[in-house]
Design brief:
Blueprint lengths: L1 H13 L3 H76 L1
Amino acid sequence: MTTAATAATTLASSGTSYTAVWVLLAIFVPICTAVAVILWSFHRLQRHRADAVAMASYRKLAEEAVASMAELRSEMAKLSEHVSAVEQLMRDVG
């Protein structure tokens, strides 16, 4: 019994084992860092995907606007022809 009591007293009086602390830190710090980097990268990827979807919708909107402007230009050309014909008629009458 004295051997067990002596061993317990020796362990209690020795203080903190810094080797165990360093080993735990050497294991957990890289793991926590890796998890943080993975989560950050995943968040960045999701943000990039959302930006890509938004840019695709903007691109589609721009294409529709260009098509609409081309249609308006052709209608304006037709209207301009009609106006010039009316002006010529007014010159001929007046």
